[in-house]
Amino acid sequence: MQIKSGSPSTRLTIADWEQLQAILSEAHLDYQLELVDGKIIVMGPSDIVSSEIGAEFGSLLRNWVKPRKLAQVFDSSGGFILPNSELRAPHVSLVLAARLKQSKRYFAELVPHLVVEIKSQSDLLKPLREKISSFIELGAKVGILIDPDKRTITIYTPQAEPVVLRDGDMISIPQLLPGWEVGVTEL
Predict the structure, then answer these.
(1) What's the pTM value of the predicted model, to 2 decimals?
(2) Is 130 helix (H, G, I), strand (E, B) or coil?
(3) Does residue 8 have a pLDDT over 70?
(4) Are residues 115 and 145 in contact, defined by beta-carbon separation less than 8 angstroms?
């Protein structure tokens, strides 16, 4: 198999991404890839602290929404094909149940209601902020950026300036999950 990209300015598509993924799978190579602005981005693994925070945040969300049948929670392997033809995978994401009645064995072709990005040791904040902003512009209701180094959580919404939370503060998402709240220190 061969992926033909043409000139350096050629924008790759989901079909190109799928072809590359098939080639990597045949070679027993397991990479997490995103398609951003027509380019394939190889996502590196998270450090242990960031990974633990993502698992904990996802568990706290899932434990609250599942018994109430309110939403589905996805980890960093859950890919979303967005209206701008990008394929992205936030560290943690949530889609309200009314919008995703049944999961299929493919990427969700929608914008999640909530996206969470967690800064790894090697990450720069600017690309993470840009990723969250892109999700918000495409229709996400809430974006959360967790920075373990600064011990802050920043909440982004389409209608307000970002809100920065610190130890001692409570995270809540009343736009999506009225009544759910977690202490920043729990993460």
Answers:
(1) 0.86
(2) helix
(3) no
(4) no
